[in-house]
Write a structure and sequence with these properties.
Blueprint lengths: L4 H17 L4 H18 L9 H11 L6 H20 L26 H9 L6 H16 L3 H5 L6 E2 L4 E5 L5 E5 L2 H14 L29 H14 L8 H14 L4 H8 L4 H4 L1 H17 L4
Antiparallel strand pairs: 1-2, 2-3
Helix pairs in contact: 1-2, 2-4, 6-8, 6-10, 10-13
Length: 304
């Protein structure tokens, strides 16, 4: 199968549009472009500019055979709607064939989180006898203390640190900047990592004096530590301690938010710390807190 040449150019223009003008994250832009590419491949030589609503519906019917999750189908529909909205805005089509596409309702599920004891168990089972082990402990302490995304942590540079005031600048989704706060304990581990362990991590690769643009967390070749390594570190610890939960860096973020809400933090403050664009994204943690109260009630009350 091949792709119409005009459609190829439309996809390139769309990619630039969602990254530069819409300020989509790299992850979202990649997913949207992949969705549109699959759509264009399915259409073969037919131009995407000659498509009507019926053709799009045929495509959605076609992808049902792959048994995608509802969330994946919803994203693919969102990709197509955004793509044709762009083409209509650019006056490459006279009408928008995707305007009336209905997005399936996404199943509501509460985010998974860890108890404080479970977090401490993970932290205390992080070996700190080696430079990389100490780096890993500093990373997990930061994830737990700040609720930052793993991509934000991986992207930290020395110029983002203001440890004198227990502050770190991060760049979240869409490169939005925000300031997050650091506990004294996490700050202590981070400072000791920078002072003693960081320079010892690269094996045979010299590490010069860091400047403002130098990555805070590095691998054994001296380059920026990638998110996959952080996930692998967590997986190894969780497997070692036989914790019966699937734990990811994002679970640390959910745990951070959940425990703030449970301890009376204002919802707007939590929203700001997490970098949520909408308060509705943060409100999910109030549901978790309510469910936690119900669980405690049902376990503790003799008549429950």
């Amino acid at each position: 199968m091949s792709i119409n040449s005009d459609s190829k150019q439309d996809l390139e223009d769309f990619k630039s549009y969602i990254i530069v003008e819409k300020n989509f994250s790299k992850h979202t832009a990649k997913a949207y472009c992949s969705d549109i590419l699959s759509f264009l491949v399915w259409m073969d030589e037919q131009s995407c500019e000659d498509v009507n609503f019926s053709k799009i519906r045929d495509y959605l019917h076609f992808i049902q055979k792959f048994n995608y999750k509802k969330t994946t189908i919803a994203r693919k529909i969102a990709s197509i709607r955004t793509f044709y909205k762009f083409l209509y805005r650019e006056r490459k089509i006279d009408s928008n064939p995707a305007m009336n596409l209905n997005t399936p309702k996404r199943p509501k599920s509460l985010p998974k989180f860890l108890t404080p004891d479970e977090v401490e168990k993970i932290l205390n089972n992080t070996k700190i006898e080696t430079p990389s082990g100490y780096r890993n402990r500093a990373i997990l302490e930061l994830l737990w203390a700040t609720g930052m995304r793993v991509s934000e942590l991986s992207g930290l540079n020395f110029g983002d640190l203001n440890l004198e005031n227990n502050e770190i600048r991060v760049f979240g989704k869409g490169a939005k900047e925000r300031i997050i706060l650091v506990t004294d304990r996490a700050k202590s581990y981070l400072e000791r990592y920078i002072e003693t362990a960081r320079a010892l991590i690269p094996k045979g690769f010299p590490v010069g004096e860091p400047n403002e643009d130098s990555p805070v967390f590095i691998n054994n070749t001296g380059y920026r530590l990638q998110t996959r390594t952080i996930r692998n570190v967590i997986n190894e610890i969780v497997e070692k301690i036989n914790l019966p939960k699937h734990v990811t860096p994002h679970v640390f973020r959910h745990s951070f938010a959940t425990h703030l809400i449970e301890n009376g933090a204002d919802l707007r403050v939590v929203q700001e710390l997490l970098g949520h664009a909408s308060i509705s994204n943060t409100q999910i943690y109030t549901h978790i807190s309510t469910q936690h109260l119900k669980d405690v009630y049902n376990e503790a009350h003799p008549r429950a």
